[in-house]
Give the backbone structure.
Amino acid sequence: MNLRELEAQAEFLAPVIAAAVAKAVAPLKEQLAQRDSQIADQTKRMDELPEPVEPDLSAIAALVQLPQVKDGKDADPVDLDALAKAAAALIELPEVKDGKDADSVDLEAVAALVKVPEPEKVDVDAVARAAAALIPAPVIPEPEHGRDAIDLEILPAIDESKQYARGTYAAHNGGLWKSYERTHGMRGWECIVDGVAAVNVTQDSDREFSVTLAKSSGAEVVQKFALPIQIYKGVHREGEAYDRHDNVTWAGSQWTSTKAQNTDKPGTSDAWTLCVKAGRNGKDLRENASTFDASKGVKL
């Protein structure tokens, strides 16, 4: 299995494992939410209950008058309703005071009375292993005995109109290619030995050239270089920028520029080097300076 197949398996397993873990943890989250809601409801009900008032038992007992026993006669009936009303009148209810809150409730004591079962711990690693066990493992073929490189069958070229089986070797664009799956055109091929497909040389300017090395995989390497050759640019023009090794004529002499973007005038700075110095002007021919008779012409 190559790197691309492993990456495909990893991309496939990631959402499946995430979904399995989320599915396993969802019931626990729902139970915790229900228990939190129940605790909130019970706390609210406890806050709404009035504080208990202890009745005056001695006063209630005093109201109960047992009838005296008379021989041969039933006892007088007891008015139970009146007795209940009298006992209720002895119970003092707390007065509600305007603008003040009721006494605070001890929430810790209330929480101690409410028994909340501890949530069960979820073994995330076990859930992940169980989810991974549900995914069928890819079938990896048994390794074959290795072969010497000289025994490999390498095709002389790749015909993009044909399909080739996985594991085919072929020469293409100066390199060695191998198919990692059944090919369709150039899809399924990978370059395992990157060779040189082409070399291109381009002249960018008078002195600059670019050499482009095209590799078999399609990558390109570009190298630029400049040649230090002298180029004659004619008579020097004031204000024009000259490059290094440009030659100009000025005041009858020939000068060579020693720097780039040279705008100096020749002879005024070290930015120019004198190549050919101008000669002295010749003298006019005197009549007695030669025996040559111009009227007779020249005989060969």
About this structure: The longest helix spans residues 3-48. The radius of gyration is 55 Å.
